[in-house]
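Hi R.,

As promised on Friday, here is the backbone we talked about, encoded as structure tokens. Could you run it through your design pipeline when you get a chance and send me back a sequence?
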């Protein structure tokens, strides 16, 4: 390889870390300060091989559309009319607005917004949070879009989010249930699909439960069980019925580790209210034949150990928490956790890795006055201090006068594209128009950026140093090296905040380089420092793969030695029944998992007008909205809405027709993919396409968030898969 390189070409190891479920190794070939091509991991296992997105990142880095200088808005919000200004003018304006808003309305009027994007240990939302905490605080969000239902359930049932096993343990499972899980697209750590394939080759049976026949179903599954969205809890509860009725539960496990089995049994069998949750009860709800439910239940209880992966998407529904709790109850009554080949059906984070969560410190938020806002079950208390992100637009529009505890006046966006990614875009447009000041840091003129008053250009992940770690599970670390120096005077979010700090009279903010931060993070965590080993070697190679001799199993200690290792729940046991939840006395958050019909279900009167259930899945060729504007990725396929041939025929729609998808909240245009790979009554659209309204307010970009509503589930789940729509052929006139 070396001999092929010209004198000037160097290969620098770095990473792709664009907020998807992977974190992958990239070897960037750099010539004259430009990345000319990339390779990925071809070293030892686990191979951290980048997908099409990671390999196309060079096009994003080098894109002519990159923002190259600070700008101020000169036209109406959303129109995209901006004028170049100097960094001095931009930063003086921002510092002035921060001071004005704090003085006039108090710190809680400032809302910094950030979600996923390219977060590492150094660069991420920490930059502006650290600054705002030093400046007097701000209002934060408490919920997140990805997996709040799973977070809620895992904390309730197990008292922990560390519920995942290492992937090498999959080979020990006799049965793997992939519930709403499509890692062939969403990655969930590079190597996951390979580990599943290896398990399958070794004889593990794999079953997927999904309204769509996914790439994962096609490549991995022995069986695909289609199901209606938002009804998964009913199926899991009916499986519990079969298991209890046939006495297939692991009674010894239940007696030792579980609390609340009897109460759950009474609900499941119908002793509580006369409704037996049989497979026949679940069939019309879920669309899954009773015999299929019964067979699956028996298989799960007898083909042990079995791994149930209760993935996020089915929980991104109204009452999605119940699906996660019901899955965990099933795991608990069959004793399928804490053992090799089992799986706790929880939030997936794996115990053991030192670094999960290690990042630049952000300090304390003074506006929260030391209140407990750490998540978990105190939904009411938490809601008064931090806002639920789904309601952001409504909160901005209505404020204190509308009964909310906040009057938000300023929104500061980094690492996020909220107008695009939050529900109810049309409401979002109105809300953004109401704000007094909007500051956006981004690399492109995104739909959100078009509304900024001041728009600041930031560096790409390959233009700065960082440290990256796997998404939840995985045994490796990446040194994400700076690969190139930007051609223009653009900054990192930290550099921007450091300059603001000095304008705000805050000392000591920008006193470290990226590498100094990395070294400090490593020093603060001795376990991490040890795992990384020689720093220079780590930086040079770009990756440290940790040798593990044994698969890592969540709750192994608790199961092997229960006396000395209680679960971190109030009872010290796995809680199918939660006293804490009982005390909340909230009908939407029952103390045992229950099936609660979603709003906007097919039985809603609204279904007469909007009879199709819309699910909004994660895009294969984008990470949310990242890469939406990058050729060649956005040329691979049009923005499809998947629709079953029965539903298409009824509407006179042919494959590849342009269609409009609509409900009372909005209207968007997409290309129909008429397919048997989705069940009748359900349509799916990938999230993340850039919102691009035409003069009639119809989104030509094809963003489903013009359709998704802003209600949130009582335990925090983001119901992006609970939405009724109608669909029709689209023509220009
Ligand atoms: N390529 C790519 N990968 C990503 C991301 C990305 O944007 N692009 N985003 C990353 C992030 S931040 C996250 S949070 C994760 C999300 O990861 P997931 O939540 O797993 O991703 P989705 O594609 O939304 O959904 C997975 C599957 O669930 C199915 N599904 C939807 N609703 C239901 C339901 O009600 N019941 C059942 N049984 N199945 C249902 C969908 O058809 C889909 O096949 O992905 C991560 N990985
Ligand atoms: N309908 C529907 N909506 C969804 C979902 C769904 O399934 N359905 N999924 C939800 C989920 S799980 C998630 S996690 C969210 C994701 O929501 P977001 O995190 O808001 O989405 P991204 O598209 O990743 O936006 C990241 C933005 O940050 C910019 N960026 C990249 N690098 C940097 C940087 O270094 N600094 C700064 N300042 N900016 C940078 C990118 O250009 C991009 O515009 O979307 C949610 N929205
Ligand atoms: Mo997410």
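Update: got your reply. Pasting your designed sequence below so it's all in one thread:
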């Amino acid at each position: 390889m070396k001999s092929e390189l010209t004198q000037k070409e160097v290969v620098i190891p770095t990473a792709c870390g664009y907020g998807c479920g992977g974190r992958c190794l990239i070897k960037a070939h750099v010539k004259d300060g430009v990345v000319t091509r990339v390779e990925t991991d071809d070293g030892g296992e686990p191979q951290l091989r980048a997908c099409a997105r990671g390999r196309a990142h060079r096009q994003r880095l080098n894109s002519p559309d990159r923002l190259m200088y600070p700008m101020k808005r000169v036209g109406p919000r959303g129109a995209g009319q901006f004028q170049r200004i100097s960094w001095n003018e931009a930063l003086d304006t921002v510092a002035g607005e921060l001071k004005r808003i704090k003085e006039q309305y108090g710190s809680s009027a400032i809302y910094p917004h950030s979600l996923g994007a390219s977060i590492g240990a150094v660069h991420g939302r920490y930059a502006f949070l650290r600054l705002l905490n030093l400046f007097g605080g701000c209002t934060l969000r408490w919920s997140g879009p990805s997996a709040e239902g799973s977070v809620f359930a895992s904390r309730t049932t197990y008292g922990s989010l560390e519920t995942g096993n290492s992937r090498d343990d999959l080979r020990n499972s006799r049965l793997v249930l992939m519930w709403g899980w499509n890692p062939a697209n969403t990655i969930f750590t590079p190597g996951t699909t390979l580990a599943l394939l290896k398990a399958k080759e070794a004889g593990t049976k794999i079953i997927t439960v999904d309204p769509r026949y996914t790439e994962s179903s096609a490549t991995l599954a022995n069986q695909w069980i289609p199901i209606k969205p938002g009804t998964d809890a009913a199926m899991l509860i009916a499986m519990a019925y079969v298991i209890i009725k046939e006495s297939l539960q692991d009674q010894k496990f239940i007696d030792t580790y579980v609390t609340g089995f009897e109460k759950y049994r009474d609900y499941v069998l119908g002793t509580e209210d006369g409704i037996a949750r049989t497979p026949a009860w679940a069939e019309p709800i879920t669309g899954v034949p009773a015999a299929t439910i019964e067979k699956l239940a028996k298989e799960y209880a007898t083909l042990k150990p079995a791994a149930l992966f209760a993935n996020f998407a089915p929980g991104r529904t109204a009452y999605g928490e119940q699906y996660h709790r019901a899955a965990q109850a099933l795991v608990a009554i069959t004793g399928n956790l804490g053992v090799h080949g089992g799986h706790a059906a929880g939030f997936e984070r794996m115990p053991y890795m030192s670094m999960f969560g290690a990042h630049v410190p952000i300090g304390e938020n003074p506006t929260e006055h030391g209140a407990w806002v750490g998540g978990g079950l105190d939904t009411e208390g938490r809601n008064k201090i931090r806002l639920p992100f789904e309601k952001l637009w409504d909160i901005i529009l209505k404020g204190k006068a509308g009964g909310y505890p906040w009057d938000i006046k300023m929104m500061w966006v980094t690492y996020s594209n909220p107008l695009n990614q939050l529900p109810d875009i049309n409401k979002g447009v109105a809300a953004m128009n109401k704000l007094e000041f909007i500051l956006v840091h981004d690399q492109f003129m995104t739909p959100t950026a078009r509304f900024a008053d001041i728009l600041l250009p930031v560096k790409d992940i390959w233009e700065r140093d960082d440290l990256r770690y796997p998404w939840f599970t995985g045994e490796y670390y990446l040194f994400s090296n700076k690969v190139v120096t930007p051609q223009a005077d653009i900054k990192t979010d930290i550099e921007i905040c450091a300059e603001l700090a000095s304008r705000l009279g805050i000392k000591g903010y920008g006193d470290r380089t990226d590498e100094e931060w990395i070294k400090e993070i490593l020093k603060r965590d001795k376990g991490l420092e040890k795992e990384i080993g020689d720093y220079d070697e780590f930086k040079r190679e770009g990756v440290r793969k940790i040798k593990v001799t044994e698969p890592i199993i969540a709750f192994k200690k608790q199961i092997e030695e229960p006396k000395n290792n209680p679960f971190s729940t109030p009872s010290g046991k796995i809680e199918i029944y939660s006293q804490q939840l009982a005390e909340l006395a909230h009908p939407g958050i029952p103390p045992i998992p229950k099936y609660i019909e979603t709003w906007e279900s097919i039985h809603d009167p609204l279904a007469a007008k909007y009879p199709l259930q819309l699910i909004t899945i994660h895009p294969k060729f984008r990470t949310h909205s990242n890469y939406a504007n990058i050729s060649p990725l956005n040329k691979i396929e049009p923005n499809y809405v998947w629709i079953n041939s029965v539903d298409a025929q009824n509407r006179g729609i042919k494959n590849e027709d342009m269609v409009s998808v609509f409900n009372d909240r909005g209207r968007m245009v997409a290309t129909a993919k008429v397919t048997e790979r989705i069940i009748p009554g359900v349509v799916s659209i990938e999230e993340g396409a850039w919102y691009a309204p035409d003069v009639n307010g119809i989104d030509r970009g094809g963003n489903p968030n013009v359709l998704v509503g802003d209600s949130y589930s009582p335990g925090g789940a983001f119901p992006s898969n609970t939405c009724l729509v109608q669909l029709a052929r689209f023509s220009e006139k």
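One thing I noticed while checking it: The chain has a mean pLDDT of 94.

Thanks again,
M.
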